Amino acid sequence: MNIMKTIVVSAFILLSGVAQAAPFGGDADVQYANDLWSSMVSESYVGEGAIKSRPYTGQHPHGAILDTIEGPIVISGKIHNIIIKRNYGGPGVSKNTVANDPARFLKAVTIMLKRPGYDPENKDWFWAKYKASGEIDTNPKGVKLAGKIAKGKPVGCIACHTAAPGGDMVFIHD
Ligand code: HEC
Question: Would the pTM count as exceeding 0.85?
Answer without folding.
Answer: yes
